[in-house]
Specification:
single chain, 9 strands
């Protein structure tokens, strides 16, 4: 859909490589492309996991190209902010498990892309930050909303309001990432995590993700789980999962 995003499918895993040298920045083309790619992946019943990473060795993504805002002004800002919102909302609602393999700098919209994923794996050399206030802007791709849910209000304020750049050791400590790897290994580790998703029922994963996201706002936590749980009994995967367990064999998921 766009050469700025390289898509590949390997068994049940889809991979997306952000390919916009030199800093893998996001623009209207790539953001619109991401939204369309996620829509297509959601229709593919064989895909239950997604790994997204950056091309090259230095950048996962440096976020938006500030030249767009400088040259286009308020109209360009509106178009870009809408595109960021739609693209990363779509990524967060991917029906399977999404994993960001952070192989370098993840700044601004680059970090927000990773925040939209379910899990984050970062290499030792990675640097994570939301530096928008340094140029008179603010994170508009979910940063002010998602980051506090992951790391708490205090750390979110410290990262956004002071412009602090976070290294992987601290990121792991505060819950910004789930795993730290050696340089050059983030994609490999993310793929191993993605492979483990094959052991899970895709229909169950989709329901669990929806409920986990609802938990951010819900004050009816236990009630929220009741109907989705019962609804799973209308699926082939639920029957297959129980039968496979009782028969001591590996389940054959149909995502149906």
């Amino acid at each position: 859909m766009t050469e700025k995003l390289i898509v590949e499918k390997i068994e049940h895993i889809a991979t997306i490589v952000i390919n916009n040298p030199s800093a893998n920045t996001w623009d209207l083309e790539s953001l619109s492309g991401l939204e369309k790619i996620i829509s297509e992946l959601n229709k593919d019943k064989n895909i239950s996991a997604l790994v997204i990473t950056g091309q090259g060795e230095k950048f996962f993504s440096a976020g938006a190209d500030l030249k767009v805002f400088h040259e286009g002004g308020k109209e360009a800002a509106k178009s870009m902010s809408d595109a960021f919102s739609k693209a990363f909302k779509s990524l967060s609602e991917f029906s399977g498990v999404s994993i960001a393999a952070i192989n370098g700098f993840a700044m601004g919209g680059g970090l927000e892309c990773a925040l939209a994923c379910d899990l984050r794996v970062a290499e030792n050399k990675a640097i994570l930050a939301l530096p928008e206030p340094k140029v008179g802007l603010l994170p508009c791709g979910g940063g002010t909303q998602i980051l506090p849910r992951l790391v708490g209000e205090g750390w979110a304020k410290r990262i956004i309001l002071t412009g602090e750049q976070i290294k992987p050791d601290l990121a792991l400590q505060i819950g910004l990432i789930e795993e730290k790897t050696d340089d050059g290994k983030s994609f490999e580790v993310a793929m191993e995590i993605a492979k483990s998703v094959a052991n899970q029922s895709p229909t169950s994963i989709a329901q669990c993700k929806e409920l986990i996201h609802k938990a951010r706002l819900s004050n009816q936590s236990y009630d929220e789980e009741l109907k989705p749980f019962i609804d799973l009994f209308d699926t082939k995967d639920q029957k297959e999962g129980v039968e496979a367990f009782l028969e001591k064999r590996k389940p054959e998921w149909q995502n149906a």
